[in-house]
Specification:
There is one protein chain. This protein has one domain. It has 5 helices and no strands. Helix 2 packs antiparallel against helix 3. The model has no long low-confidence stretch (mean pLDDT about 90).
Length: about 90
Amino acid sequence: MGDILRILKEREMEITDVAFTPENLAQLINRVDEGIINVSTAKSTVLEAMFDGEGTPDAIIETKSLKQMGGEDELLEVVRQVIEETQVR
């Protein structure tokens, strides 16, 4: 709530000027709880983008490629791809 109030004050907005819905805010909180994004990214990037009217949290996360790595298997796959691409050159 503090970050929302901060942004409202910085932008000289009223709460009625906010374009996103309570459901969008709940979605953002859920994505942090699920580990899809971290709190810092939620506050500094996704919430700001929501205020800019860039879409839902899921759309912003996807568009800006903000999803955190899911685990060791996912990280290993990225490493393999980088090694493959480097060897081809």
